[in-house]
Amino acid sequence: MCSGWKHVDKGERVHFDYSDEELSFRKELKGFLDGELPVYFEFFDLPQQERFDRSMEFVKKLAARGWLTPAWPVEYGGSAHAPWQQMILSEEMIAHGEPRTGQYMNVNWIGPAIILAGTPEQKEYHLTRISNGNVVWCQGFSEPDAGSDLAALRTSAVRDGDEYVINGEKIWTSNAGVAEFCFLLARTNSEARKQEGISIFLVPTATPGVEVGDIDAVVHPGAFHHVVFTDVRVPASCRLGPENEGFTIVRKLLANERVGVARYHRAAGYLDRVAKWCDERGLLDDSSVIETLAHARVACDAARVLVYQVWDERTRGLHPDESAWVYRTAAVNAERAVSEAAFKLMGAEALVRHSHADNQFEWATTAGIAGGSYEMQLNSLARVLLGTKG
Amino acid sequence: MGPNDELAEELRASARKALDDRMPTTVLRQVIDTEDGIDRSLYALAADLGWLGLTLPESVGGSGGSWHELAVVLEEIGRALAPLPMIASVVVAAGAVMLAGDDEQQQRLIPGIADGSAIATGALFGASGRPDEPLAARVERRDGSLVLSGVSGFVPDAHVSSWMVVAATDGAVPTLVVVDSSAPGVRIERLDTTDVTRRLAHVHFDDVVIPSANVLASADAQHVIDELVRRAGVAIALDSVGGLERVVEITVAYVGEREQFGRKVGSFQAVKHHCANLLVFSETARVAGRAAADAIDGARWVEWAAIAKSYSGDTYTEATRIAVQCFGGVGFTWEYDIHFYMKRARLSQQLFGSPTYHRQLLTRELRSRTAD
Ligand SMILES: Cc1cc2nc3c(=O)[nH]c(=O)nc-3n(C[C@H](O)[C@H](O)[C@H](O)COP(=O)(O)OP(=O)(O)OC[C@H]3O[C@@H](n4cnc5c(N)ncnc54)[C@H](O)[C@@H]3O)c2cc1C
């Protein structure tokens, strides 16, 4: 296993090592995880309710150790540890099947959005609950006609005295079936440019008029939902940040989401299992097998070092969109490389449901769409690179 | 277009109509939920339409046609994702008996395959289902009878078979025997695989007694196995050709309807290139597949078979990956059909030898040719 490369300082210094303190944190964390989750399994393979129950139990323990939101400021329930602790956490969690399930989003960007734009009351209430590890959120962004073109969303929130009245439909909303809150994007001004009329609402899913349905999906069954809002009334105090500035806030925070999921690390974990599978069959002397494994490994480690670079820039107060997009595409490529290698090496045995190849294939397939499509990432990069519009 | 092609196009039109009527994906969705996952009445229709006996000789109930016509039917089946055990029964099992069986065996076993009253399969490989790994089934003589034990992995359609041709070692050499699927000692372990349109099983043999009449009389069983791998490989390549063609159609239709940013998503250059690549894959796989079908028994058969199977295996999987990407979120729902193709492509890629395996065969074949 790669213990870690980090701190790539463009052109100047390159540090590939974690500090002793960080290494011992990783070791302690792994020990805890091995105790709590003795066998590797995909949380996503569990039925939704069981996944939810086990995750809730687990995350509370994580929070009690100060390992849920270590990088957050102390006043919001964090311990202001170096951001690398969060990176180590994100790698180890995903290596163990992401037992935080939906709560990883709270840590990566929902909490930070509230830190950035919340009122003192919102911070007090939500950040306490998030950092204690006992609340699940879902992300209500996409709509049937607003996927890649997120800013075209039509769910509306109309001010009525001290309340907003929300109407519309969200789709692909992961975890909505178990979430207590929805981080919702809705249109508050239909006259303005489409990006400039959107606000954020922190909506309790138990509010009358919120209806959650299942989507019959071929991946992660039970995890996808649509959420319909019919005359849903929420107090104006549910709005996060100024009216009509939701899109700007979300854009900033989604860069966190892009680099917050250590996809390359999960893929590398599957690759390790495929390598072990090959080893058990005496295939590791074959140079074409070694080459196939190494090819996929390089894709994972290239993505790893890219995200470390972004993270390093963050610690120095820079928020480079570009390198986050480069990382995101490299991570999708790593997912695909491991999936291809697994099929190539495992042959017919890859076809069995939940084989290493089958699991990785599922992740690699959704990777190009979830959280914004691969093509849209390339569009953004090309725009910066070529200075073009569109 | 020669007369041959007019016939082939008539056959294509009638096959497409039959499958459009009988196996639209709405029906497919019901069939895959049944215990056996095949539609027996459609199989009976396939027999009536003469698909099953197409390449079998008239003396055993077939119509003595060529692979040129069989190719058409296989393409249409792949296009419709039809869950028909035709490759296992006709190409592999009947093919084995025609290649290695004697007159009596052919007369006894083949008419049932041609008229669809029996379904058969071939269990040709070891536990991992790979042609390049040792067999894990063996026969021994015990008290004057022949006894089969061991396992064959990833056998297609074994669960609906009435008999199967099994490759087993007899001492140091392979042999082929016909095994009654319901004989004592045969256990069919169904596998939970991702392609729901075709079923696979591990078949376990626990001291199964093989009547001497069921030993296929061939001097060189390995040669027969290799030929069956080529034929099944080409049959799968043709199934993939039909699948690819449909993948292009439904993807182009979707991106021509779906709008984002006030435009059809198919108007974005990135998506256009995806679609153009799909077409390149589809057209190339088609000519390679058809060239292979027409090359059977010819001087370049071995070469074309390897090209068709390896090319279609990689392009069908890559094309379906790209297609799902073009569909975005809806590509992951049961409601749309594209995921069926993605999974069928994965199975096709690995069944009867992976692309890597077939490329190695190709290299060996080309080398042996230059050595001549
Ligand atoms: C596993 C998974 C989990 C998800 N979870 C959530 C969630 O919790 N909450 C949520 O709100 N959403 C979620 N989504 C939705 C996701 O954000 C959208 O699916 C994604 O933004 C793409 O939108 P779409 O599906 O409408 O595809 P479309 O936007 O219709 O795209 C279809 C195709 O067109 C391409 N395309 C579109 N526009 C352009 C362009 N301008 N240039 C080039 N190509 C273009 C796309 O790249 C894609 O290939 C999830 C999706 C997945 C797969």
TrEMBL record, chain A:
Chain coiled-coil ranges: none
Sorted UniProt keywords: FAD, Flavoprotein, Oxidoreductase
InterPro entries: Acyl-CoA_Oxase/DH_mid-dom, Acyl-CoA_Oxase/DH_mid-dom_sf, AcylCo_DH-like_C, AcylCo_DH/oxidase_C, AcylCoA_DH/ox_N, AcylCoA_DH/ox_N_sf, AcylCoA_DH/oxidase_NM_dom_sf, Mycobact_Acyl-CoA_DH
Sequence ranges assigned to domain Acyl-CoA dehydrogenase/oxidase N-terminal in this UniProt record: 19-133
Protein name, entry field: Unannotated protein
Molecular functions (GO terms): flavin adenine dinucleotide binding; oxidoreductase activity, acting on the CH-CH group of donors
One cellular component term from this protein's GO annotations in UniProt: plasma membrane
Cofactor names: FAD
Residue ranges of domain Acyl-CoA oxidase/dehydrogenase middle in the record: 138-232
Domain Acyl-CoA dehydrogenase/oxidase C-terminal stretches: 244-385
